[in-house]
Amino acid sequence: MADDNLCALPAEIVVYIFSFLSARELIKCRQLSIRLKEIVDSMIQTEALWQQHCKKDFSSIYQMARYKSKPGLLWYNIYKSLKLWCKLAYAREDLDEFASASELSNEISNVIILRDGLIGVHTRGGIVYYHIETLDKAKREDIKGTYLRYMENDDMIVVLSYNLQLFIIRKTIQNPRFEPCATFDNVKTFLLIDEITYYVTLSDDIYECKCNLSSERLEHSDDGVMSLSYSRNKLYILTFQRSIYSVNGKNLVLECTLSSDTSLLDQLSKYNFLESLDWRIYNQWMYVLNHNLPHGPLRDIIKVRIYGDVVFVGSNWGVLRIYYAPYTGEIFDLYNTEPVRQFNFIERYDCPVLSNCPIIQIDVSEREDGHTVIVAMPKKIAVLNLTHNFKRTASVAMLPYHENSKMKMLKIKDFL
């Protein structure tokens, strides 16, 4: 038998063979014999193996998941947690809140989960840092000032002031000849990708600022740049004329123009523009192109966050919807897909009748057997902990999404 032949092989050869298996196949091999179970269990402890599986199965988000995950989480746990998103319907939820804005200066504009369990909260008074585990303020020094936009990663802090001055701050100085900060005027939008900041001036010139803070003009757009995105190692621009261009060196290449013949959501998703989209303008485009506007809450979209196959949609009225693989055929389609979970963060004392409570930002952190979703609104930040605490074997946790329907036929008690 095949498993007898495997058991007869030296352990080093079995490990080499198993290294080519998918994560699900590897877990199933534990059931073949005691010896193979011991080999697989030893492989599970290998970080490089699970990093490889994360890269293979979650190529678009595995690095982000590691960066924003709970400190100390192993690649194996990250892989398992990412696999569990398809079973979100069964997750237990716990809700907490922090950074309540009782004063105008504390009103929230953005939130970003950073490395080592830090959260950067952009308020009207500056940038304040919290711990994701305790939700207490961190010892890291706040950044004072009033800013229109804020982004941060391991390398840079980038803020845009209300007078459209862009400040790029290097967090570490490896070469003393490099300046620690650069300022650029008349900037209307920007995008931070690793050590590079792309920004657009009021005259629609597109610039690239590298880690040494030297700035280089890439190209000019005659159509009026609406937003920037980065996907598949390319910079894209979306114009007010509904055209999408890629930046190739110092040339703009027309990728497509959104028309009445195209699915707007699908095209915008393909080029990674849904997160930076102004949904008021999107609704105007739908009207101009004679597309049917959605009814109900989906007409009030404020924020969309794409996280692999998971799509978070925040409305103007404090409603968060979470979708998994919202496709009709191969077309990205929120309007004809039901959310897996829905949460309402509006509170009558916070948001009286006739006032709104927009969800302005959504971010995600992976935990062991669960996920933490940070939902920012102007008056507060909600922390949604989703925990998968059902009884299951390791192989059940690795089941792919297309087998999720089989799981739903099991009794609910099997997941608790």
TrEMBL record:
SMART domains: FBOX. PROSITE patterns: FBOX. This is F-box domain-containing protein. InterPro entries: F-box-like_dom_sf (IPR036047), F-box_dom (IPR001810). It holds the Pfam family F-box-like. Residues 3-53 form the F-box domain.
